[in-house]
Every structure is written in structure tokens, then in C-alpha cells.
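Contributing new records

If you add data, match the layout below exactly. Sequence lines come first and carry their own label; structure lines follow with theirs. Keep one chain per record. Anything else will be rejected by the validation script.
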Amino acid sequence: MSFPTDLKWFSAGEFRNPDLLDPAFLYFLDSVRSRAGFPLVITSDARTLEQEIALPAHAEPPESSLHVAAPLARAVDLAWIGDPVGRWKFERAVFATADALGVSVELEHEFPGEAHHHLGLFRDNRPSRLLLTFLEK
């Protein structure tokens, strides 16, 4: 599948594996960026199953990760938003966008180690969830 060319805020060059990402997720991400009102920096995106398995702390089972292209990935990791007000605006943007589009999301704030935000769009209609994960240093 080809990367959408009509996104307002993101281009294929910002992603490692842009053609493995679900366009529905990319439009969702673009809408979150619009609502947040500031740039979101992609640090990780789609992975093959082999790439997921190679990670030391991969999902279990690996194919359950929203990062895995099965058939297309529906998750990114974003650089940590250090400003608490900005982080709150981002969180509100995620859930407001999910509500407006009628989709379910997973938002995980992972810290302190290599702190980042994981944002995924579920493939089914399970409830959205917010996770706070403490990473060991």
C-alpha cells in the first residue's frame, strides 16, 4: 500500500517503514497532530514480525504488537513531550480524535529510561486505554 500524499502534517520521510503503515492510522495520527497544535516526532513506526522479535522487550506474542504489519501496522512511538502542559494537550488530542472518529486507541506513556509515547489504533472495537509504564533503567 502506498503512503497517503494528502496528509497535512506528516510525510513518508519521517517514517522508517512508511509503506507498512495503515492509511487509516496515518489519517488518525494527522488529526491528532492538528488537535494537539504542535509537532509530534516519530521515533519508531511499523515493523516486520522479524524486527519485532529482534527487540529485547518485544510484545508477547510478537504478532500482537500494533507496530507489526499484520497486514499493516497501526502504531508509532513518539518522542517524549517534556512539558506537562503539552503532554496533557497531546493526551486530550488523542482521545478527542478517537471519540470524533469512533475508534479505539492505546496510548502508553513509557518512562523514565528511554521515555516515549506509544500511540496505537486498535484493529477491533475494544475500549480505548491509557497506560503508564515504568521502564527499568
